[in-house]
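Human: Respectfully, please carefully check these tokens:
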Amino acid sequence: MASKKGIAVTVAILVGVVAASFLVYLLPEDTTMKISVSDFEHHLDITKERATMEVTGIDDSFKKLMNGEIEPDEYITIAEISSSQINSLIIELTNSGATQEWSESYVNYIGSLKKLNDKITETVVVANLIDDNDTDSIDEILSKIKQLETESFDWAKKSDDSRP
């Protein structure tokens, strides 16, 4: 006859095998986030609205920085958050799986968002210069910021013009 210890070991092994086989079916194979877009026009419109809100917020904060209403460190924190949000929008558009007819419009708007991120980076440079009391080269950077705004606007217009 089998001993109690032998039966317990056999049952434990069988339970382990059954549990392991269930885990294979229960654990997801791919845990990456996927965005499923079916209305590309609406998706692009929503993304533009979100980007516009970020632009409005960062522009208002930059004006406050230039007027001395907020400290450079506070502005840099706001700018980093805005830049992160813009990066999220870029990733979202890139991973949306736009159809062939929408891909050019999406690519152009991604270009607009990248220029916007470049603008935010330059505003952080200005904030750092203000923090260091080095205001000599700020005018040069401000003209570069205006140029990046124009380039971002041009990319957005290209995006609108290339919509199907």
In short: The chain is about 80% helix and 0% strand. Residues 63 and 113 are 20 Å apart (CA to CA). The two ends are 80 Å apart (CA to CA). Helices lie at 4-26, 40-66, 72-94, 100-131, 138-161.
